[in-house]
Amino acid sequence: MDAPITAAHDDARSPVLxxxxxxxxxxxxxxxxxxxxxxxxGLEIDLCDLGARHADARPAAYxxxxxxxxxxxxxxxxxxxxxxxxxxxxxxxxxxxxLSVSLTAADDTDExxxxxxxxxxxxxxxxxxxxxxxxxxxxxxxxREYDIATRVLMRLISRQHGAPTDVSRxxxxxxxxxxxxxxxxxxxxxxxxxxxxx
Length: 198
Ligand SMILES: Cc1cc2nc3c(=O)[nH]c(=O)nc-3n(C[C@H](O)[C@H](O)[C@H](O)COP(=O)(O)O)c2cc1C
Description:
Layout lengths: L15 E6 L4 H15 L4 E5 L14 E9 L2 E2 L1 H9 L1 H4 L4 E7 L7 H18 L5 E6 L1 E2 L6 H14 L9 E2 L3 H16 L7
Helix pairs in contact: 1-6
The structure holds flavin mononucleotide.
The site of flavin mononucleotide (FMN) has 19 residues, from helix 1, strand 3, strand 5 and helix 5.
């Protein structure tokens, strides 16, 4: 469920922070696509890799914050959890969005939907950050990026789930139109007077 914004954010003319964490690069592409849509909507953006050494994005400097993280072994990157937890109070005072990238999100069964919701809920509980908007995004199988052990593991898991097993190529399951739509709606939220306190 969407969270209310509990206080006014500073200034709709401040840039929007688009922060992300990625293991094999797919979530960075998603963050970049979100950033491109926000720019097209007339907003300035700063892109920040929260997994990078010395990453120190301060949400107080931004009119809105988008975070994208991928799921590995059932959880989002620890760097995102740490960062969100240390900025919970500031994040509550402006529009924020969270994109959870996983292969579970490529599946539209009730069980998969429950799993992606639970993973997002886990992040809320661990960090205390209650994003204004959330989206579960189907990720990618990047066989050509994986080391041998990961490739074997992912092929095995894919076979069990009826996903592609041709390791000579990569498979992108992301609904890019849905990502762009989500970004457009977030841009409107940042610009809207409705971003004032409820
Ligand atoms: C080693 C490994 C473990 C993964 N574990 C999960 C998982 O537990 N649940 C899930 O839904 N997807 C899982 N995935 C799929 C990733 O979330 C998906 O490939 C995503 O696109 C990765 O994004 P990234 O390249 O930005 O890290 C896993 C992928 C890898 C390579």
